[in-house]
Amino acid sequence: MTKQWIAGVDLGGTTTKIAFITLDGEIIKKWEIPTDNSNEGKNITVNIANSISEKLKELGQTKDQLAGIGMGAPGPVNYETGVMLNTVNLGWQSNFPLQASLEQAASLPALIENDANCAALGEMWKGAGNGAKDIVCVTLGTGVGGGVIANGNIVQGVNGAAGEIGHTTAIPEGGAPCNCGKTGCLETIASATGIVRLAKEALSMPGVAGELAEKYSSDGSVSAKDVFDCARNGDSIAIKVLDEVACHLGLVLANIANTLNPEKIVLGGGVSKAGDILLNAVKSQFERFSFSSVKDSTKLALATLGNDAGVIGAAWLIKNKLLEC
Predict the structure, then answer these.
(1) What gap in Å lies between CA 249 and CA 243, rounded to an integer?
(2) For 239-251, what is the mean pLDDT?
(3) pLDDT tens digits, one per residue of 9-23
């Protein structure tokens, strides 16, 4: 068989990332297209298929070069059927047959998985996981997502909703409301929006002063990045917020590790760009709450693939199926 490529797709509510990737996980070409949510999302798979065809033509290739299309999509997925159980911001009705729709539009075999799971697979294959077969990936962005890999396979659960780490209850009583309908979810604390909420609460107390308070007073707002930047400079309010985030995140990760004992826990997403000041604080709390043998064997690391994790993990879906044949 001639060396083939895989089309990896990371479907987002606003933008769809697409890449041609070799069977060794190297990106040949990557690009983005807008996600058209109009008309109940009827154009999404057609636009992806057309874009793939156009890019192949630009590169002087035909569809024979592609082994298939792997796609990460936001929401729980029935992996066996490729049906999206429910989605947000894509316009589709519940139980949308995404795999069948994509295969029909592109005339290529396709496999569908949750987008956070694809990011975890990408980090396992070519990123911070460094080939580890037991890994948990946590994405800290606007929300908090997660993917759990055991013995090289994504843990999906009976309804495709395994790995919803962001909706682990971190504050049982009196927690902030979450978009999922619960209160006190980890997402309300460790996401970018959660960090901003905590910062604003701390800054609303009487008599606060310091770099973060001055920025809030002058700009009228603060970001998660502001919190980490000010914490690096020794600002007491920012450090207090960082410590609270790290405590809850470290506790949840320790409980996950105490249950699964993965080789690595990888922190990704925009919030993880804070780097060592976040990682070291979380590590300290993780070691405080984890069982001794787990603490000694499970390592925490920052993700390395950035925005490429999703398309690389989506490509792994096809590669993994090919290897099984």
Answers:
(1) 10
(2) 98
(3) 999 888 999 999 999
The per-residue DSSP string of 55-89 comes to HHHHTT--GGGEEEEEEEESS-EETTTTEES--SS
CB 288 within 8 A of CB 300: no
- 254: CB partners within 8 A, 6+ apart: 285, 286, 288, 289, 290, 294
List residues bridging with 120 in a β-sheet: none
76-119 confidence digits (pLDDT tens): 888 889 999 877 668 898 899 999 999 999 999 999 998 889 99
Work out the number of other CB atoms within 10 angstroms of the CB of residue 140.
Answer: 31
Q: What are phi and psi of 4, to 5 degrees?
A: -110, 165
Average pLDDT over residues 229-235: 97
Asked if residues 32 and 17 have their Cβ atoms less than 8 Å apart, the reply is yes
Predicted confidence at residue 277, as pLDDT, reads: 98
Say if CB 90 and CB 35 are below 8 A apart: yes
Q: How many CB atoms lie within 10 A of CB 220?
A: 7
Residue 229 has φ and ψ, to the nearest 5°, of -60, -45
* Cα gap 259→253, rounded to integer Å: 10
pLDDT band at 1 (very low <50, low <70, confident <90, very high): very low
**H or E segment and range at residue 113:** strand 110-114
Q: What is the largest CA-CA distance in the chain?
A: 71
- What six digits make up the tokens of 144? 């908090």
Residues in contact with 134: Cβ distance below 8 Å, sequence separation at least 6, in sequence order: 149, 150, 151, 260, 261, 262, 263, 264
